[in-house]
Design a protein that fits this description.
The protein is mostly helical. It has two domains: 73 residues; 48 residues. The longest helix is centred in the first third of the chain and has 27 residues. It starts with 13 loop residues before the first helix and ends in an 8-residue tail after the last helix. The model has no long low-confidence stretch (mean pLDDT 87).
Length: 143
Amino acid sequence: MPPRKKPTKPGLSPSHKDALAEGRRQGNAVRRYLVALERSKPRRGRSTSADALKARLADLELRLVAADPLQRIHLIQERRNLERRIEGASAEAEDDLPELEKAFIAVAADYGSRKGIDYATWREAGVTAEVLQKAGIHWSRRS
């Protein structure tokens, strides 16, 4: 008896593939905007500029030369931490919030209605009322 042939599933239609690609595009636009909002949110305490961090790093390098082995390990770790903070500060500066906001505005209403996200949820996530208004998401409408 010959082996049974496994039935094949029909492939996705072009319109279904387009819909999936559109959903991914919208999801990425929303995600990138929300991440940029989170990064730009004011933090507690005094902010430190990249120049101040670089000055601290230069001072640390001088102290590292004369340090004993135990101090050196702590200073090396502090140097790594400062380098990460400097890198993070430059990455935050690279965020193009206006461009991300434009992309968010273009897709937010459709994305929100498809996913059942209402006005209050967007606001709780940190999206301003002005941006939601531009996107066509109003507090009086429910998803």
